[in-house]
Amino acid sequence: MMKKVLVTGGAGFIGLNLVNAYLKDGYEVVIVDNLSTGKIENIPTGVTFYEEDIRSQNFIEIVKKEKPDLINHHAAQIDVQYSIHQPVEDGSINILGTLNILEAARALKDEMDISLIYASSAAVYGDPVYLGIDEQHPIQPISYYGASKYAPESYMQIYHDLYGISYSIFRYANVYGIGQDPKGEGGVVSILVDKIVTDSLFTIHGDGEQTRDFIFVDDIVSANLLASKHPINTVCNISTHTKTSLLDLLQIAEEIIERKIETVYQEDRPGDIKHSYLLNEKANQLLNWKPQYSLKEGLAKTIQYYKEK
Ligand SMILES: NC(=O)c1ccc[n+]([C@@H]2O[C@H](COP(=O)([O-])OP(=O)(O)OC[C@H]3O[C@@H](n4cnc5c(N)ncnc54)[C@H](O)[C@@H]3O)[C@@H](O)[C@H]2O)c1
Predict the structure, then answer these.
(1) Per the database record, which ranges form the NAD(P)-binding domain (predicted)?
(2) pLDDT tens for residues 111-120?
């Protein structure tokens, strides 16, 4: 029988890539998104769309009516700076919003099996005390966003223990790819791609030696498809296990476009983590998942898409 998935945040960057992959894989897809950062044009035909807040009572009614086999929860407030200034709203969306989703799953679980996927973040680790970061690394978020992404992990584990609701929690490294908005908290890759396509100056904060673990969104999607079939009932990193400095990233981009990118240097941003990369052995063991894209391949696909657009 055709499986039904409800994707929260399906009008956002990662969500839109997930939705397209689920459709391709034969799933029936329902999206719930309040379009706070998501875009209506990201929603393809052939899905059922509810413009609704995940915190609303109506959300629970939607779940009861649609009876999805799986809720893939990607809706969130993702702006770290916003979380610092508006911790209550950040916590409300990320913590209470996820709790409402868990309550909706609980409302259904006597009727049918329902499982969950939750997109968490490397932000839960805070400043690394060692590299590469594995899942045993201390949880010491340095922003409210990191804290509000972590709290739902605990709730989800308890809902599993109390009610037997299956789940998979993924802590993503820095995701990039098609559909990412360079204007929001898009991340450095989407900003770089935007500067390339619009032929404008790219700003480097600090010395450019800071490193990140950049993962292409298609690799995020493949991990989600695997966990959709086999929930892992635990948490794992989804990352490339590779550290890339900003200067390396620039060089790779220059190789792809075969020209120099104009840059300007500015001072370090306070609160920025200097180095980060995450191990991914646990995801490999539990899901038989591995990232398939090198940074050069993922970046080339992303640049090409925006050039043609
Ligand atoms: N992009 C990354 O690098 C990254 C890294 C780690 C974790 N994540 C997580 O992945 C998920 C998706 O991130 P993204 O980069 O696609 O962000 P995004 O902002 O593009 O997508 C989030 C979506 O959620 C929707 N949304 C926000 N609040 C909502 C609410 N209260 N009710 C209903 N819908 C709401 C937005 O409209 C948007 O469509 C988030 O949970 C984020 O924390 C992303």
Answers:
(1) 6-302
(2) 999 999 999 9
